[in-house]
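In practice, a research group might receive sequence data for several interacting partners and want a quick structural hypothesis before committing to experiments. The following worked case mirrors that situation: the sequences arrive first, and a predicted assembly follows.
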Amino acid sequence: MLTPKEAADFLRAHDGYLILTHKSPDGDTLGCAGALCRMLRGLGKRAALLRNAEVTQTYAPYVDGLWAPDDYAAETVVSVDIASENLFPKNAEAYAGRVDLSIDHHPGNSNFARLNCVYPERAACGEILCEIAEELGMLNAETALPLYVAVSTDTGCFVYSNVTANTHRVAAKLFETGIDYRPVNKRLFRTKTKKRLALEGHLLSELEFFDGGRIVVVQLPLALQRELGVTEEDMDDLAALGGQVEGTDCSITMKERANGEWKISLRTGPRVNATQVCARFGGGGHRAASGCTLRDMTQEDVKRALVEACIEVAGDA
Amino acid sequence: MLTPKEAADFLRAHDGYLILTHKSPDGDTLGCAGALCRMLRGLGKRAALLRNAEVTQTYAPYVDGLWAPDDYAAETVVSVDIASENLFPKNAEAYAGRVDLSIDHHPGNSNFARLNCVYPERAACGEILCEIAEELGMLNAETALPLYVAVSTDTGCFVYSNVTANTHRVAAKLFETGIDYRPVNKRLFRTKTKKRLALEGHLLSELEFFDGGRIVVVQLPLALQRELGVTEEDMDDLAALGGQVEGTDCSITMKERANGEWKISLRTGPRVNATQVCARFGGGGHRAASGCTLRDMTQEDVKRALVEACIEVAGDA
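A structural hypothesis for the assembly, expressed as tokens:
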């Protein structure tokens, strides 16, 4: 295990960096990659990000101009916010077994890299990168902005249970570089498209409750998605919607895919182990947040199967 | 103007404290009052809060057991988060002209008190109270929890534009006392009643747009409030709802009161000075968040007057 200082020493000693981000890239992996690349270039190194085909418009501005050209000669491979090689995007699979340094905060990190700088107590990988930036003398407005994106997105803007004193200390340091965090907050946490708001309005009026009100179900059949004309981005992170209903501790979000499959996201309180529920349907995840996919079933049957599984798993506990 | 250190010296030198909070009390005024009372009692002083009839269930736990009995002998009167004597609750009007120390962060503070410790650059009055607590050696888990309520509520949990490096530094210090902020965040920022969600669902489907989509209006006539059976608490902080619509930078929330008055909350981006708009109707507040009350006008006229004022103030800038 490398400390942030040791990771900084390693980064100062090498060159020709290729930086890997995980599939379905979020603000933490992209913010960290953007910041790390700028730090290394600031030190006069060659550095670039391996292209990630799944980057959304939300995060594209923070990694703009940093992608490696096709003929990039990688000497040193660093991954950020990646827990295991299973989470590599397709075009990163060639680097399996060849990562020199992994910087990450996932408790389940598989230590797949030659050197690992992994701190599971950090809410965001961005907190570790902030320490590394300080060690490198590279904490400035250019690196602090993507790091703020990393830290704020992985904590829901400092509201999730993973926030610690260190998270706020890091945010204070990032602000001290003079960054303007306001457009970031406005864009990432305080802006919703009219379609998204219409969708939320509809879903909130159609919530269904079971098990004495403790289980809430949010349903997005294809017909509704088409009626409202919503995109995948409009439906991003909808699992949080049901979880906020007072008195519930079990929120099932059912999204129908174009092929008729139902993608299920389950969010639970301490009473129900979400991993156990989703494992019954071949899925998995964390204790409080898991997912699975159900096939060849009607909407009613999917709903019934999941509600029953939640009740049974709660009963077994 | 008193510094936090001078305010701490004053507090150490006196006794028999009565602490005033503002009408329609929020997390900042109540959190500050709760923390200040506990600090003073911790120093062996007599201290209590003047009863505030409008305290909601949301914030009641943070001021529980601190209310002054009817025969309380006040020697020293301190107000927290109160910008002017107009904002005193009814039962505090007897203390107009008799406040010894005002601790506040509103730019428009009228300096109504004998001594004023006012820092408009602070996002929450709780930030100033945190400095005072440190000066008094009274920053501990008991005082830090209500201060966290103060700072987090006035910043929407660190998402609003008023957040500064100091806000995050204060949050880190509060966390370091060992408080458990998780139930606070869950309760204040991640839980909504079923009625609240139904209300939001309804309002989101009924948004009205003006000025090429830059102004959004959210309307809560009494008839709607009665139809949905919502309480004052269900309608708390609805001003944030309209402000999140993509492409808008001016959100007007109109709430009809039982007496037919319209309570207006205005949230604006840099283009429109909310204070200037609300000042036209005898109200005030901050540049990005102000309020006012309109009387003897129809819903349509209230809406038109406010939309026009926003357009004119933007034009004058």
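Before designing any experiment, note the following. The interface with chain B takes residues 157-161, 163-166, 168-169, 171-173, 175-176, 181-182, 185-186, 189-194, 197-198, 200-205, 207, 243-247 of chain A (CB under 8 Å). The first helix of chain A runs from residue 4 to 13.
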